[in-house]
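Before relying on records like the one below, remember that each one covers exactly one chain. Contacts with other chains, cofactors or solvent are not represented anywhere in the record.
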Amino acid sequence: MRSLCYKAVGIGALATLAASAFAQPANDLCDNAIDISAESFPYRSEGVSVLDAAFDLESRMSCVTASYSVWYKFVAGVSGTATVSTCAGDAPDCTITDTALSVYVSDDGTCGTLTSVGCNDDYCGLRSTVTCNMNAGSTYYIQVAKYGTTAPTGGADVLQMYMVAPTPPPPDRWLESGDAAETTSDAQVPVGTGTLGSIAGSLSGTADADLYLITICDPGSFSATTVGGTSFDTQLFLFAFDGSPITFNDDDPLGTTLQSRISNAYVTDATDYYLAVAPYDHDPISADGLEFWLDQPFRAERQPDGPGVGGVLDSWTGTGGTDGAVYVIALSGVCYPGGGGGACPSCPADYDLSGGVDGSDVEAFFTDWSNSAPCSDTNLDGGIDGADIETFFRAWENGGC
């Protein structure tokens, strides 16, 4: 019936429409997506009125019910993290105040083989942001939509989006390899030397936690946060090398977001730990099936306070999050596990890296040695055994190397 409406529009009305500051939705459907690959970035689209969008032909989003959408196409020139936003500061011409966003990767460059790599409803108030990893040479489609199924009204009918194209990751970032596991026996071990400044990855399913082995080489400056690194509701957990729970946060104690932040409040030793990121309400449990932390208070960093206190990490329970949701964990005071850049002492005598040789080095060494931590391989033979004790004490008794 839309064609009949067009026939009823007079010449004067058509002229008025043509002079409108906002274009009609030529990119109403995925097959007509506007290709923005050659644009300058950051890129801000023109405002597009969706009063006349084809509601009955909408492609449905995976995370939310949305409609009256427009589409954009982007071929990534480099691999890295991209951000798409309809937040008021990013998209000032967007007059639809409740939006939704979805980003898809195409297997063959067309709309027939789309897989969601990020979807969001409410990030900045009722507006949306998606942050996702993109691979060089791959084709992505961006769907910008109005939340819900009710038709937009005049004056509240314009969509606009803002995009920051992917840039190569910083050199001290670890990119998740495959799917990081959830238990200490098969946690992902970042490979590298020196400072580990961040970890980037994504969820696999709605019941997924990613667990990484890290070395906290400077406990005094340690922190880990997903604030500014994702749009989903995160949780961060820190475990000792033996799987004992240490600290946890759900919602940032320093802000108002649903992302997480943990500090050095309960970290004392420079040694190896396991760091986990998970969506709310996917929680770690002991072998008895008991959670280590209570759900509330949300906006506080806490030591274990749940019924599983005294146990070690065995598995996870509960669901949450969105399949494919991307995260970046920003780190400080952290090094790659197993050596280099200050992660392990160059001389085992000063094992705790305090600048002196004393009893605290003995305590720190035996804590690591009993947990088979990589730095306790003091004779560098690839194994952790009694020979490492002998090497440590030889250096310690000499007051240095």
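The chain is about 10% helix and 30% strand.
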